[in-house]
Amino acid sequence: MKLIINLFALVIIASGLDEDAVKELKCSAVSSPDSGIDLKWFGSINQFYVPLWNQLYATRTAADLLSQDARHIPFEAVQPASCLTMNKDSTISGFGRQVKYNITGDETSITFRAPWSGAKTGKFSFHMMDNKSYVLGATCWDDNEASWAVLSTVQNLEPKSRTDILKYIKSLGFDENKAVDENYAYCGLNQLLLTPISYNSQQQHLLLSPYYIYFK
Ligand SMILES: *[C@@H]1O[C@H](CO)[C@@H](O)[C@H](O)[C@H]1NC(C)=O
Ligand SMILES: *[C@@H]1O[C@H](CO)[C@@H](O)[C@H](O)[C@H]1NC(C)=O
After folding, report:
1. For 81-101, what is each residue's pLDDT tens digit?
2. Which of 34, 163, 186, 214 is in Cβ range 3.0-4.6 Å of 81 for a Cys bridge?
3. What backbone phi and psi angles, to 5 degrees, belong to 211?
4. By alpha-carbon position, which residue is closest to atom 7 of ligand 2?
5. CA 214/CA 216 separation, integer angstroms
6. Residue 42: how many CB atoms within 10 A of its CB?
């Protein structure tokens, strides 16, 4: 009975995603990468997945793709997985939407901007990569907030890669507990799961994803 009351209380006070609660580091606190990337490999990939990233990145990307202030995005809209893909034609798909970004790049970074976020750009600097299945980058946003994400050719990182990546982001000063593992197993053919779901099914999803911490 107590559990039911608690879940009910969560539903009542749910307001949306909370960006302030998931901010971590300022850009200036993140050291510069010291290794290069194999651009030929990177340029040859048609589609990247994002199996691991931090909560701030997930929140901002949801806002960009859903064209809404994060506070107005109900928790259910981002459940239970982003299903994000970054495609060679500069489109980003996820959260049930597809948006064409303005993306430019050089040998150390990608600079990107979504139409909805207007002048707010992010610069994704390559930090750690195996030149065959993933690249970990840290993004510095125009408002001096830093976040990180892994672009990968595979939906599930090798356990060793995941461990190495988490160790690395910790060394940069990010919080391992604010990492989000994405689960592409939820991403069905028609992405039915991506359409906003009713509060009735929310209790079930609460148990499935680290997004529950977005509740306040
Ligand atoms: C990736 O490729 C770049 C460019 O060829 C190279 O400098 C770097 O050492 C490579 N990194 C790994 C981990 O293989
Ligand atoms: C895309 O970004 C580049 C580099 O920042 C900029 O020069 C260009 O005007 C942008 N294009 C659009 C359509 O925003």
Report:
1. 999 999 999 999 999 999 999
2. 186
3. -65, -15
4. 104
5. 6
6. 17
DSSP 8: H
Q: Which of 106, 113, 117, when mutated, tests ligand 2's pocket best, judged by the most ligand atoms within 8 Å of its CB?
A: 113
User: Do you know the residue count of the chain?
Assistant: 216
Pairing of strands 121-129, 109-113: antiparallel
Q: Which domains does the chain have, with CATH numbers?
A: 35-215 (2.40.128.20)
Structure token pair of residue 102: 């303005």
Query: What is the average pLDDT value for the chain, to the nearest integer?
Result: 83
pLDDT tens per residue, range 1-43: 555 545 544 444 457 899 999 999 999 999 988 778 999 999 9
Provide the phi-psi class of 173: left if phi over 0, else alpha when psi is between -120 and 50, else beta.
Answer: left
Q: Is the pTM of this model over 0.85?
A: no
Which ligand ends up closest to the CA of 129? 1
The ligand that comes nearest to the alpha carbon of residue 42 is 1
Question: What percentage of the chain's residues is helix, strand, coil (to nearest 5)?
Answer: 35, 25, 35
Going by their DSSP bridges, the two strands 91-94 and 97-100 should be labelled as antiparallel
